[in-house]
Prior knowledge:
Blueprint (H helix, E strand, L loop, with lengths): L2 E5 L2 E5 L8 H8 L18 E8 L4 E8 L12 E3 L1 H4 L8 H8 L9 H13 L7 H7 L11 H8 L22 H7 L5 H4 L5 H9 L8 H4 L1 E2 L4 H9 L1 H4 L2 E4 L4 H5 L7 E4 L4 H4 L1 E3 L3 E5 L4 H10 L5 H11 L5 H6 L2 H11 L4 H8 L3 E5 L5 E5 H6 L9 E8 L1 H4 L9 E10 L11 E12 L6 E12 L7 E2 L1 H7 L6 H14 L9 H22 L19 E5 L18 H6 L15 E7 L5 E8 L9 E5 L13 E3 L2 E3 L6 E2 L5 E7 L2 H10 E6 L11 H6 L3 E2 L13 H7 L2 E10 L11 E7 L3 E6 L4 H12 L6 E5 L14 H14 L3 E4 L2 H7 L6 E9 L5 E11 L10 H9 L7 E8 L14 H19 L3 H7 L4 H8 L11 H11 L2 H14 L3 E15 L3 E7 L5 E5 L8 H14 L13 E3 L2 E2 L14 H30 L6 H10 ...
Parallel strand pairs: 1-5, 6-8, 7-8, 18-44, 19-32, 30-31, 34-35, 38-39, 43-44
Antiparallel strand pairs: 1-2, 3-4, 3-5, 9-10, 10-13, 11-12, 11-13, 14-15, 15-16, 16-17, 19-25, 20-24, 20-26, 21-25, 22-23, 27-35, 28-33, 29-30, 29-32, 31-40, 33-34, 36-42, 37-38, 37-41, 42-43
Helix pairs in contact: 3-6, 15-16, 22-23, 23-24, 23-44, 29-30, 32-33, 33-34, 38-39, 39-40, 42-43
Amino acid sequence: MDLEFAVNGERFKVDSIDPSTTVLDFLRFNTPFKSVKLGCGEGGCGACLVVLSRYDPELDQVKECSINSCLTLLCSVNGCSITTSEGLGNKKKGFHPIHKRFAGFHASQCGFCTPGMCISLYSALSNSSKEFTVSEAEKSVSGNLCRCTGYRPIVDACKSFASDVDIEDLGFNSFWKKGESKEVMLKNLPPYNPKEHLVTFPEFLKKKKKKKKLHNGLDHSRYRWTTPCSVAELHNITQAANSLGSLKLVVGNTGTGYYQDEERFDRYIDISQIPEMSMIKKGEEGIEIGAAVTISNAIDALKKEESKSCYIFKKMAAHMEKIGNHAIRNSGSIGGNLVMAQSRKFPSDITTLLLAVDASVYMLNGGKKAEKVKVHEFLELPSMLDSKRVLLKVEIPLCTATTSTTSVDDDTELLFESYRAAPRSIGNALPYLNAAFFALVSRRQEPSRRGVTVDKCFLAFGSYGCDHSIRATEVESFLTGKSLSYSVLYEAVGLLKGIIVPGKDTPHHEYRKSLAVGYLFEFFNPLIESGHYSNSHVNDTAKSLLPFLSSSQQVLESNEYQPVGEAVIKVGAALQASGEAVFVDDIPTLPNCLHGAFVYSTECLAKIKSIRFREKNVTPSGVFALLTSKDIPKQGQNIGSKTVFGTGPLFADELTQFAGQRIALVVADTQKHADSAAKLAVVEYDTKNIEEEAILTVEDAVKRCSFFEVHPMIYPEPVGDVLKGMEEAERKIISAELRLGSQYFFYMEPQTALALPDEDDCVKVYSSSQAPEYVHSVIATCLGIQEHNVRVITRRVGGGFGGKAVKSMPVATACALGAYKLQRPVKMYMNRRTDMIMAGGRHPMKITYDVGFRSDGKVTALEFIMLIDAGLEPDISAVMPRNIMGPLRKYDWGALSFDIKVCKTNCPTRTAMRAPGEVQGSYIAESIIENVATSLQMDVDTVRKINLHSYVSLRKFYTRISGDPDEYTLPLLWDKLEISSKFKERAEMVKEFNVCNVWRKRGISRVPIVHQVLQRPTPGKVSILSDGSVVVEVGGIELGQGLWTKVQQMVAYGLGMVKCQGSDKLLERIRVVQSDTLGMIQGGFTAGSTTSECSCEAVRLCCVILVGRLKPTMDKMMMEKPGSVTWTMLIQQAYGQSINLSASTLYTPEYASMEYLNYGVGVSEVEVDLVTGKTEILRSDIIYDCGKSLNPAVDLGQIEGAFVQGIGFFMMEEYTTDEKGLVVQQGTWDYKIPTVDTISKHFNVEIVNSGHHKDRVLSSKASGEPPMLMAASVHCATRSAIREARKQSLSWNCNDGNIDESGTDFELPVPATMPVVKSLCGLYNVERYLQGKILG
């Protein structure tokens, strides 16, 4: 049988294919559909999602679900229909209502993740059995990652489809104006009708399925793919395994997302069509679930169960909904999960649940008869992967079976609960620990045994760094038959701590132990406290896992410079949603195109002796070349990047100087072959004959005097007399230390470039870059050719955040080198793992400070020493001192002095990341203020307020860039947000909450920001074509920040000054085109938040020129035909008169006004779970001064997105290195950016229109980076909650060595992850609490 399927209704027939080919591989390289993106290759980001439709000819039904095309094998979709975002709707056929609403709610910025988001929503809509609810809408995108928007507009777009939504609660959008009636709102929404807008299954596939329904197998001689239809057939295949070669049993293939297997198998066995393995059967003993049943289908079956065990089954289902994401659960099988747990130590939630209900599994073991064993026995067996055993099904017993040895009467109660501590509640994150408890308890009335007695219990724990989930049988035996009391529970906890022993390489050992203790306490303590069964054990499992997200936005649109100031939909938003927007990797691959992958160093300092592939004298499949520094043309240079501060090499030469440094480029026929070959590369190092040791810390750098020079011109100046300020101080904090870690960009589109050789030694390069001009120069220098021989083109970038500036240069340069040398196109699409290892990220730093202050909280002097880890190469690190000191000066320190050293180390080169230095500087200021308040035992908000700048002190600290007095809006914002957020009232409510709650504590914090930005010279060009349409070029790059949209609005405004008929409706006639370094020179960097406004000013100046040229013609035509001159007529006349209708400028800001200050205030309230360390952001309120916004919708998106990215930095994202300096986190499994379930539950934003600013572009101000600093309010609120937890812990009667006696004197690290928060709240707080209760 041939492999045949449909994509967007179009028939595809494949005669032969490698069975390891994924759906994504096929779609991207064999179809015109490009909406399916490769973001991670792990099933962890949602960029690759498609809808898979299967037709059942027996039931004449079509079932749809979303799947990860990056994991799903193509052969597994035989006879199915695939729908991508283009298949839902597109430019030619009309966009789908989902696309339109995403655009109208401003829910797409860079657009790389948007098609996957649309597919997630569509899948949720199509699978909603009843009316689509707000809860379903919120959960529909919980497994998708977005780095730009902050999720709020995405959630609003999804909720607009919900039947139970209050439409007035939906956020800022283009469909209605504030104050319009609900009827108008509903009428203006793009209509959605499930009957019209759902995808239909192709008839040609239906006919095929009906004809061949008895056999659906492929010809294994052509596909090496077998689909057995019975257990007997599978048995014969497995028994003949030795003769057939290596076998792989597959259902959804989701395991490869975790293990990233490179092994190629001789034959793939698709077991999803075996009835015995794919059915769900309910009997008197329990539920049998076939091993090939997907996790989603198992969840549905457990939810529908109506037996006496339904309460337990529903609890299990609710827990299983937290596993992976929708697409993983739709593909991944129950059996696959269990086998990975049994054979490869996968941290499984399902095994823990099954252990707690004493479940069994059935296996095919050599013979044809199935063998039944308990799950705990199954987990102890030798690896299933190393044997011929096959898992057939799982049997979950009914509660009556589980309690068969125990009598159940009216005083007996069955209890079940499961637990899971993970970085995200439901957003695709492995747990630190999971647990599931089953107990049969009874209430005793006799005096000697009054209270609750444990008659029977199963206590299961998993995912804590063990080989597999376990039952704590010693604790079970100890508790059985005992009447619960604090002393009994305390002894049980002691036993448990000896059982939960994480593996030696497992991080957070004690934290994981404390989780096990905490969960045991949470389960049994309510029975002790109340003396009877608590409702917490039988709560409604059907309730939403996500609280409803709510938001409000106060945004003022301006019509002073129409259409500038209006909330115009982002250019190309619908195109991005449908997936038709073209990114570099979407450019059709030429037939002779080669692909590249870097080989990088794993040593921090070593000589390179040789590079070869794993098998000597054997070149891996598809490899054409291995390029090193020796392959750079003689006339060229080994250069891979440059800034004004220096250069960096393309490849390490004879010496590699940091782990992750580029050593070579593998060039192969496909990206998959290039990536595989790069992993097979073996670098032989010499680490013995190195004269000096590697510098891996800033302390080592100080000892060795290893620093980058910072020119005095950009080194910040001290303020005031610190010695005098210290003398005036009544109190001091001396030698306090603070450390800040790094952060990875996690742009959704990895680094990518395409280079094409051209005639006469020329090369054309498509680069996903924020700095094409610099890419251009580096390529020319590397190849040793003149710059006019190089052309770099950038249309759009799938997220940058600074990471696509300097770090994009070596990617493009390596491709250019390959194309130049091999005279064939070379493309590189860097895999996420390599990208993370090479990215460098944000600068880590160490700060040691002395601060003097008065008893009323007023700071009199601050001095500090700062050591910044810049890594090996200069990059932009020399500007870090200046960037840090800008926001750090936001308080009146009295006097300020500092010694900032930029350390050169043998670590990955750090680079600019959104608000580079500014986010750290602003936080350092907050940390100092927090410590001052703690030292004085004062309210920290009071200390903040007393140290806010007056205009006089602002002038002292910011000198020439402080602006006029009326531009200093921070005090106004501070007071305004206090009222709108009800800060004082909520602060009192937080205090009351903390008094009334033992195991949850809240904190609230208000944080101001002052952020200085710098305008830079920026080019622009505006050309009017003969039909009156307009084409615009700017130096700035569209990264998702809405630069093109603002530029388009500015051109419409500027050309509208000609004042003819139709000139007020030019917006739709303007197109901004891609950056071309030969067409638009001096483009510079798109960075620092001001490129949009500078680009706008550049094109405005162009428009002034053009209007000046058109004015005489216009005046003459108006005299001849008063009032009847249209824009088209005017342009035709101008063309006839040969008037130059193309103008270009280089906007150069004046020195006196090129820098300015931005202001904002953020208030956040959090709740900390003292058992797990989980921090939930209950509410965030932001107020930000945008001047007169050029586009409020764009600026709102920037503000929200920056704030959420800040949440990631302060609370979640760990980007660390090992002892050799190699990055530890290498994918979505261990690097967690915020998701829908981790952002603020209530998110309120107000953009203040602060009026006229004479030196700004139409009075506008930047919005891209400054709001990120306000996310420190979340961290500070968490600190406040922890402080309350520590005070409480000290009030108990037993000592916890984890908490010092001062209690409130501590430093909260960044990021404040769950283990960090828990450790500061007290790793042993449960034991401490129980001891206190025992002692009375």
